[in-house]
Design the sequence.
């Protein structure tokens, strides 16, 4: 009875604590809620430059002061480094004044307006009397922090602009970070996790699919300002994942008009040296500027994509049957309103419909057998910041996300699986409509001093998510090499799905700097959702230590407990259709087992949220201001993963068990070097040794968008995206004649695969049948600045050429793993050398 009473109390806890929290803070005059998501700060960065006639030279060692009403009577200062660079980060949105006073130069003073989650780039031009020396300057967002217990991987605007990205999407840039690879199914595996185990945030708000837990948003690449990828963030504000979290900051408008037009040149579809229509067309437009100077700003980005992706191993088929076809329209709109000196309001809206036809096309799935996935999604968010004279900051956000999915085949012919390939039409049809509402608040308390400096946060987050739809499948057959039937798999039930839940989170976090050379993170978060109904408390601890007292060396690390979300399709498991399996003898007609009905059954124990215990240790050392070396190790052990297990019972019966006992482990050691060779340009080199193991019957493998109908007993082994060794090097180089070259070189171990027999049973341990050949790629993008005359005016632009897989190395993506196939052990489907042109008209 005591436990029941506690559960009832906690069930009403969100409403009770919400009103109490609001009342207390209103009395104090510092009203706030909070959330489990990152804070919304802006930044100012640039370089201090001597404005000498006909040339500009950076000045090191200059003190730059920042003042403003949002920070009270305080003044912040930064000193330009050896190359003239300065930066102020973590600034509350508001109006600031930058001041520089330097002997021999005129006093510099400039007003700057910082928007929510926006970066202001401002070069300070000082009128000199005299200056000598020549240096270069780098404005580098990737510099290692001296006070953070875990530092994110960073993808900047410059990287998105200059790196060779095969489809010009922000997701294509993430594998430039160590520990992130694109797996055998084409999805991103971040730090040894499946996509459903990681989180993704846009402007601090959750944008995953509430049904499957997969990332579910598309943004024009010009709408993305900066991407941060956090692995094991020890701040308690992060939650609802067991792996990593990707946070995207979007662009905002400013007092300066900016525009970009690019992607207007169509790409021909080439086959054997001949042109067969259009291969791709991807026009993109972005524009931003003031609606009312210093008061109201807007930014708008639009893109249309039509892309055909060739599967070379299907060259014997006609041209219309060997392409994966993607058509999408992505729009991002943002309005920033400076309400007054302490209030900022930001509204944004994203629209991202997608048609992905022949989605799982490969060597063994011809186009007629594949599935089409059509998405319709939009995301609206409202963010507000209020600063107080005490130094406290209140951040509020409301969001609504709609994400609808249809999965369907291309023909109604019966689906069959043979040792050589698959035949017929895709067996499964899905339709679902989902929506998520989120209300989150964060309170950053005024800085405190008690045995050092304290930065304290506290917060609440409330989410309501729901979906309805259907998932119905047609009967299919497993056929042996001699043409006899091995199994008949049928599906029983209506397949009508409906599920909803409420989620509540709270956290408290203190970043304490007891000494100038030591920073400690202490935090705890609470999570509860309507499916798991557990009260999950997750403590976190992290540290950053300057062992020599100087800034050149930083040792950082920590340990934390991370609880994951439970996707809605987990809660709806027993509503899915049941499997009915008939197994035949060697002649294909005699029934050896069944028909056996496997009833969808959730394990007797209550569903519990997956969780991971993760720790890391990292050493950063700057040998000079131009060279950084990083050594790091991290380990993550995950428990309570959701897995599927088929269990036979009496004659003709069984259960398909949704179990909550899955586990996985990921270990990673990395060595990363960063060399700063030119102004604003870095070169990176990294080696990563890793291991990813876990239970292999992941729920979404069998009940996700592309369902596998063959369910065998669960095993623990290597994940199919395990790649124990990876070498990565890339950088951008400024060349004469306004040329920029960005090469990317990668070598990594091949992925493991399983071997199966003609009955689709595994032969030996899963993912132990061998590995794909090592992947070797060398890509490059070279662009050149141009001036375009038009109607008496001159416009700036860039033209360029990308080359992918320059060496035309054999990097197969498919393998015939059936021992009864005549092509057993043969690899297929390598992407050949390809080219992309680039043209953009830009003022950014």
Sequence:
């Amino acid at each position: 009875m005591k436990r029941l009473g506690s559960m009832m109390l906690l069930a009403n806890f969100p409403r009770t604590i919400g009103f109490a929290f609001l009342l207390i803070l209103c009395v104090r005059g510092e009203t706030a809620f909070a959330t489990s998501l990152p804070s919304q700060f802006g930044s100012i960065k640039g370089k201090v430059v001597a404005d000498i006639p006909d040339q500009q030279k950076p000045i090191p060692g200059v003190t730059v002061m920042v003042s403003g009403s949002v920070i009270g009577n305080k003044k912040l200062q930064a000193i330009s480094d050896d190359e003239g660079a300065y930066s102020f980060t973590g600034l509350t949105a508001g109006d600031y004044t930058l001041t520089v006073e330097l002997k021999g130069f005129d006093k510099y003073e400039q007003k700057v307006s910082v928007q929510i989650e926006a970066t202001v780039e401002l070069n300070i031009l000082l009128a000199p009397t005299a200056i000598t020396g020549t240096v270069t300057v780098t404005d580098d967002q990737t510099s290692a922090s001296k006070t953070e217990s875990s530092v994110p991987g960073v993808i900047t605007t410059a990287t998105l602009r200059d790196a060779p990205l095969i489809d010009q999407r922000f997701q294509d840039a993430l594998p430039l970070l160590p520990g992130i690879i694109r797996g055998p199914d084409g999805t991103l595996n971040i730090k040894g996790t499946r996509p459903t185990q990681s989180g993704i945030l846009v402007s601090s708000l959750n944008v995953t699919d509430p049904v499957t837990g997969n990332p579910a948003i598309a943004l024009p690449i010009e709408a993305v300002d900066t991407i941060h990828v956090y692995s094991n963030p020890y701040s308690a504000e992060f939650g609802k994942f067991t792996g990593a979290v990707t946070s995207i900051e979007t662009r905002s408008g400013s007092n300066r008009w900016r525009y970009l037009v690019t992607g207007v040149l169509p790409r021909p579809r080439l086959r054997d040296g001949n042109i067969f229509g259009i291969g791709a067309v991807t026009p993109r437009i972005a524009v931003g500027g003031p609606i009312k100077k210093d008061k109201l700003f807007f930014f708008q980005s639009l893109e249309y994509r039509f892309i055909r992706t060739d599967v070379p191993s299907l060259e014997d088929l006609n041209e219309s049957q060997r392409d994966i076809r993607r058509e999408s329209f992505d729009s991002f709109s943002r309005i920033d309103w400076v309400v007054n000196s302490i209030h900022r309001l930001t509204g944004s809206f994203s629209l991202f419909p997608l048609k992905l036809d022949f989605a799982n096309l490969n060597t063994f799935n011809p186009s007629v057998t594949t599935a089409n996935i059509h998405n319709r999604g939009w995301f609206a968010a409202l963010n507000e910041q209020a600063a107080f004279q005490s130094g406290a900051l209140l951040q509020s956000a409301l969001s609504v996300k709609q994400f609808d999915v249809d999965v369907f085949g291309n023909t109604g012919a019966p689906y069959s699986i043979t040792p050589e390939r698959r035949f017929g039409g895709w067996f499964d049809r899905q339709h679902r409509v989902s929506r998520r509402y989120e209300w989150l608040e964060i309170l950053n308390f005024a800085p405190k001093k008690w045995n050092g400096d304290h930065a304290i946060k506290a917060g609440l987050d409330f989410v309501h998510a729901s979906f309805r739809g259907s998932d119905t499948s047609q009967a299919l057959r497993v056929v042996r090499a001699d043409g006899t039937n091995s199994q008949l798999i049928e599906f029983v039930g209506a397949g009508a799905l409906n599920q909803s839940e409420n989620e509540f989170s709270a956290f408290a976090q203190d970043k304490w700097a007891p000494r100038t050379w030591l920073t400690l993170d202490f935090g705890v978060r609470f999570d509860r959702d309507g499916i798991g109904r557990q009260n999950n408390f997750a403590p976190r601890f992290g540290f950053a230590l300057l062992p020599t007292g100087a800034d050149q060396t930083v040792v950082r690390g920590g340990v934390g407990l991370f609880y994951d979300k439970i996707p809605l399709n987990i809660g709806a498991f027993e509503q899915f259709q049941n499997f009915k399996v008939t197994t035949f003898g060697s002649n294909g007609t005699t029934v050896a087992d069944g028909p056996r009905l496997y009833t969808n059954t959730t394990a007797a124990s209550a569903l519990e949220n997956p969780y991971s215990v993760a720790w890391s240790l990292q050493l950063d050392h700057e040998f000079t201001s131009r060279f950084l070396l990083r050594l790091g190790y991290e380990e993550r052990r995950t428990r309570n993963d959701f897995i599927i297990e088929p269990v036979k019972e009496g004659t003709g019966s069984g259960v398909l068990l949704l179990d909550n006992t899955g586990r996985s482990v990921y270990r990673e050691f990395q060595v990363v070097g960063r060399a700063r060779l030119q102004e604003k340009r870095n070169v990176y080199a990294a080696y990563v040794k890793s291991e990813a193991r876990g239970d292999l019957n992941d729920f979404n493998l069998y009940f996700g968008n592309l369902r596998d109908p063959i369910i065998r007993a669960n095993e623990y082994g290597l994940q199919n995206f395990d790649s124990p060794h990876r070498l990565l090097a890339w950088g951008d180089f400024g060349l004469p004649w306004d040329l920029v070259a960005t090469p990317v070189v990668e070598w990594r171990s091949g992925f493991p695969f399983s071997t199966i027999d003609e009955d689709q049973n595994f032969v030996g341990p899963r993912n132990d049948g061998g590995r794909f050949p090592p992947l070797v790629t060398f890509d490059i993008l070279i662009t050149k600045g141009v001036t375009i005359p038009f109607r008496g005016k001159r416009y700036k632009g860039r033209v360029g050429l990308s080359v992918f897989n320059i060496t035309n190395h054999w990097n197969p993506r498919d393998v015939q793993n059936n021992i009864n196939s005549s092509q057993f052990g043969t690899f297929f489907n390598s992407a050949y050398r390809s080219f992309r042109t680039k043209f953009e008209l830009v003022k950014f």
User: Anything to note?
Assistant: Residues 1-39, 129-141 have pLDDT under 50 and may be disordered.
